[in-house]
Amino acid sequence: MYGKVWSACLQGIEGRTIEVEVDVSNGLPQMNLVGLPDSAIRESVERVRTSIKNCGFTFPMDRITVNLAPADLRKEGSSFDLAIAVAILITTGQVSSEPLQMTLFLGELALDGSLRPVPGVLSMAHAAKQLGIKRVCVPRLNAAEAALIDGIEVCGLTNLSDFRNWNQQTHHEFVVHAGNNEDSTNFSADQRNIEDYADVNGQHQVKRAMMIAAAGMHNIILIGAPGTGKTMLVKRMPSILPPMSDHEALEVTKIFSASGKLADRTSLMRTRSFRAPHHTISAAGLVGGGTIPKPGEVSLAHRGILFLDELPEFTRNALEVLRQPLEDRSVTIARARAVYTFPSQFILAAAMNPCPCGFYGAETEANACVCSPAKIMQYRSKISGPLLDRIDLHVEVPKPSYAQLNEHTHANPLSSKEMLAKVLIAHQRQHERYAGTGIHHNNELSGNRMRQVCQLTAEGEELLRASFEALGLSARAHDRILRLALTIADLEQCDHILPHHLAEAIQYRNLDKRQKEFDG
């Protein structure tokens, strides 16, 4: 006897449909799994056997062979339990196969036959739709997540016993629609109380730099003494980033679903993620890894912000692995059996002190810098030149005066709402400029397209040439200055890059200037 159903697994963050084939033949009672299953799938033998018995079905006392095709793709996880159990029930005639044709099954079985949720359901349901599968049967707690994919029927099940009286007429009681899952609570990120830049008194120039970074999705680093508000400024950056488009929201939600970190299964993520890993994180924790790689922090920050506080405290190896994601906007991890690619298009926001003690350049009678030039150089050398080259804005954060700390008594500080309005205008200009090109923001410009868009006046050309030679800029830094100047022009709703746009972009290369001071 032979039977077949559809299931799926994750390959990176994308779903991959799998055929679960079952053959029941005469022989010694045993169950063999083939098709490169991992240990969690091999252990499903006992879960499936026990749950079938405890749900009132009969487990065949014959030789059972289960094949997961394609056989050359390594599979992992417990999402095949339900598909294997249903395939056995169909093969032995205990469940009719007719109403279950073109149906994909996902779910982990408990010993009593109840279904437990599994990660990555969103990606796997999307893969099923692309294959033309019409229905997906998943655990009830995964149903709202799968229903986020339009054009596919989702059945939320609580127990294997739900298949006992399954037919085309009665199965509709299990159908779940998006946003209709009574077992879920809405934790929509858009309803969170996001911190506001109105809380920050003073630091007007730094606020403008943060707004420029958000307008063009540029990387930014803040350098300043302890207590100047660097972390406070970065943590408010999500409040000036626009909501994600449908495509971006699906992309990010699939990453969190595959990672098992999706807090709200009833809606797509609309607020851009903010990831702030501790400086003890490993290189694999940042970019992803493992025997079967999982997304790291750079992918969890996709379309959002990756905040690295106290940047020089991160290990050199962890920082250097950021170079490829920052340049390619994706992470490629090679293993013997497969190559995995995770998206990683994010804003890198970093903060650091100017020296080990933190007070270089901001000395007062109470706090004087005690670091020697050699110690300062050693501290800054933890951040390599190639990594700094990939950061567009180097911004010094000065110590605010007493009057600035109390400016709310005299004037209303610039709020996130005001900043967001300007950022939205800049994003709209970029959307219109790059329509149909595959480019979304200024930070993605390169090659001929950048030379066409970033036209300079003769005065601007001379200014950039002088700065390039005086600061010893690299070709990458040259291009980043042009992209940054274009974003500044967009914020001012100007169609051309003017010399003062270029001058402002150049002055954001503070670390290049400081390096020249030390070299001199």
TrEMBL record:
Keyword vocabulary terms for this entry: ATP-binding, Nucleotide-binding
Pfam families for this protein: ChlI, Mg_chelatase, Mg_chelatase_C
Positions of the AAA+ ATPase domain: 216-401
UniProt-listed SUPFAM superfamilies: P-loop containing nucleoside triphosphate hydrolases, Ribosomal protein S5 domain 2-like
Signal sequence residues: none
InterPro entries: AAA+_ATPase (IPR003593), CHLI-like (IPR045006), MCM_dom (IPR001208), Mg_chelat-rel (IPR004482), Mg_chelat-rel_C (IPR025158), Mg_chelatse_chII-like_cat_dom (IPR000523), P-loop_NTPase (IPR027417), Ribosomal_Su5_D2-typ_SF (IPR020568)
Record-stated family: Belongs to the Mg-chelatase subunits D/I family. ComM subfamily.
The protein's name: YifB family Mg chelatase-like AAA ATPase
